[in-house]
Amino acid sequence: MAQLDVREKLGILADAAKYDASCASSGTTKRNSAGGKGIGSTEGMGICHAYAPDGRCISLLKILLTNSCIFDCHYCINRKSSNVRRARFTAQEVVALTMSFYKRNYIEGLFLSSGIIRSPDYTMEQIVEVARSLREDHQFRGYIHLKTIPDADLELVRLAGLHADRVSINVELPTVPGLTRLAPEKSATRIEGAMRDMKTAIVDTADARKRYRSAPRFAPAGQSTQMIVGADAATDRDIVTKAATLYHRFSLRRVYYSAFSPIPEASAVLPLQRPPLMREHRLYQSDWLMRFYDYAPGEVAAAADPATGMMPLDIDPKLAWALKFRERFPVDVNRAPREDLLRVPGLGVKAVNSILKARKWRRLALDDVGRLTVSVAKVRPFIVAEGWRPVMLTDRADLKPLVAPKREQLELFAA
């Protein structure tokens, strides 16, 4: 390991970090180096690409401090028993790489995680030192996201929150039996305890800043977590329920879902094939229904198949819910409350807001609604508008084929 140069280490540790999906740069405070103070910013246009709420692409240097680990989690490519090439950065090397990439305009920030070496406390010390040096020694004002370690000392985790914009603690798997089976050295109780402590620190610091302007900021972009999908027997209903619990208990900014990917020399307890990537996509859509469309967790879970607990892969969960609860439709776009409009397949939050604003001045026809959505055919069976009532569509037994997206065969050599 000592014979590897920085370029070789970067190749190994950047590749090892690709399995961590919880990488985003949204929600933090705005900082910049205007006036000659410091270097870097949390703004600007976007090697890892994250997206801010307004759609801006922001590039982050996404690496591990080391891919060595004292744990032997079955699903992890960097587990102790894995036969992979190992590498390790020093804290100073990560700082130098971050500054070098930033000055070349390659990145806007850093996402740093690590395998556990020596002990959780030792590893956490190294991670914190990277963030401390960037902030204090180099006046770096770009975005920093740190993965914290549940078993580390609380003071170390507190220091991480003082230097980082966002911190994250991975729950790893949706169920306690799954975690016990696939990561026996990790504890769901300790993980959730660390998340609870982080939430308390964020809330306490935010309260202190309301009273004292000099109070330090603490993880202004909040905390997030990640769940691996398809490595255990957890159903989509289990995953949605777990995500809702995490949002409620710990005020998370995001729950990320990562489809399990088979790894070399995998343990015999792991599935031989990865789950469909569409399953991961449907879980993200389900997550958005809870976060932005005011769906209760039970409503989202109800869109899953009663027998298997899985979301349909051929249609999105919002459409699946609408087809399952046909008695809730059609809704009148000129009279229905916001919560009912948000449940209409094909209408997004912006479209609903536009409808609520426009109908103050005139009654909306189907063509008016069609201009606010990608597919008016998807919307038609579920709404009543001026001059439109889906008389025969509403009760059709074969409605799903009419509103489901058509499958397209892509051309291999399309221009």
Automatic annotation (TrEMBL):
GO molecular function: catalytic activity; iron-sulfur cluster binding; metal ion binding
Residue ranges crossing the lipid bilayer per the database entry: none
Keywords: Iron, Iron-sulfur, Metal-binding, S-adenosyl-L-methionine
Ranges in coiled-coil conformation: none
Domain Elp3/MiaA/NifB-like radical SAM core residue range list: 59-286
Gene3D superfamilies listed in its UniProt record: Aldolase class I
Record keyword Cell cycle present: no
InterPro entries in UniProt: Aldolase_TIM, DNA_rSAM_put, Elp3/MiaA/NifB-like_rSAM, Endo/Exo/Phosphatase_dom_1, rSAM, rSAM_sf, RuvA_2-like
Cofactor(s) required for function per UniProt: [4Fe-4S] cluster
Keyword Iron-sulfur listed: yes
Protein's recorded name: Putative DNA modification/repair radical SAM protein
Protein species of origin: Sphingomonas spermidinifaciens
